[in-house]
Amino acid sequence: MIGASRNAVGTAIKPWREEGWLETDPGGGLLIHDITSITAHARSTM
User: Fold this and answer.
1) What's the CA gap between 4 and 40, in Å, rounded?
2) What's the whole-model pTM score?
3) What is the pLDDT of residue 21?
4) 9 lies in which domain range?
5) Cα torsion at 16, 4, 29, 23 (round to 10°)?
6) What is the pLDDT of residue 26?
7) CA–CA distance, 41 with 6 (Å, rounded to integer)
8) For the chain, first and last CA: distance in Å?
9) Domain count along the chain
10) Would you say 13 and 31 are in contact if contact means Cβ atoms under 8 Å apart?
């Protein structure tokens, strides 16, 4: 991802990072710790 797309993704996943449900890998990937909570949160905000 580059530019605005990367920033938009960072903003979108920020609440999940703050909850500890996922973290970013130094190599640029995502480490998901609680997909159930992420899914529930995403569905509740639609």
Assistant:
1) 26
2) 0.74
3) 97
4) 3-44
5) -20
6) 86
7) 21
8) 24
9) 1
10) no
Closest CA to 24 of 36, 35, 13, 34: 13
Tokens found for residue 9:
């993704």
DSSP state of 42: H
Give the whole-angstrom CA distance, residue 6 versus residue 46. Answer: 21
Two structure tokens written together for 25: 């890998």
Q: How many Cβ atoms sit within 10 Å of the Cβ of residue 16?
A: 19
Q: Report pLDDT for 31.
A: 95
| pLDDT tens sequence across 1-46 | 456 677 888 888 999 999 999 998 888 788 999 999 999 998 998 7
Beta bridge partners of 22: 32
